[in-house]
Amino acid sequence: QVQLVESGGDLVQPGGSLRLSCAASGSIDRINVMAWYRQVPGEQRELVAAFTRVGTTNYADSVKGRFTISRDNAGNTMYLQMNSLKPEDTRVYYCYAGGVTYYRGGQSYTGNFWGQGTQVTVSS
Fold first, then answer.
1. Local confidence pLDDT in tens for the 124 residues of the chain
2. Ramachandran region of residue 56, left (φ > 0), alpha (ψ -120 to 50) or beta?
3. Cα(124)–Cα(118) distance, rounded to whole angstroms?
4. Fewer CB atoms inside 10 Å of the end CB: C or N, the chain?
């Protein structure tokens, strides 16, 4: 199976910075898309930033110029550098991996996976 483990969520003052990490583990052959989403309980999960296998990135308008998404060379660890944080950035942040090709019992599978979420709180 494939597991995504996020880390880096914390309480930070407005204007501060945080760096989230997401590590994918398992018998992974390829990950097509990795992305960060965020959610307030009771509301729909929203896309924050996405990084594709071919190197393109997409950002929500609300975070452009403040957040930067990146991946390591192996492509299985993703980061979200968040600068100039605002109280409205307070959410649970989720890591997503899409089009993951992985092996189990000698068979190849493709699936989509979510991490467990990490809380980011921006408050003075």
1. 899 999 999 999 999 999 999 999 999 998 889 999 999 989 999 999 998 767 789 999 999 999 999 988 777 899 999 999 999 999 999 999 999 999 999 899 999 999 999 999 999 9
2. beta
3. 19
4. C
As given in the structure block, the two tokens for residue 114 are 């979510």
The DSSP call for residue 53 is T
Gap between the Cα atoms of 6 and 8, Å rounded: 7
Q: Residue 17: which H helix or E strand, with range?
A: none
| Residue bearing tokens 């990084």 | 51
- Tally the residues of the chain: 124
Which phi and psi angles does 35 have, rounded to 5°? -150, 160
**Cβ–Cβ under 8 Å, residues 81 and 70:** yes
* Residues contacting 9, CB < 8 A, separation 6+: 18, 20, 92, 93, 118, 119, 120
Would residue 106 be called left, alpha or beta, if left means φ above 0 and alpha means ψ between -120 and 50 degrees?
left
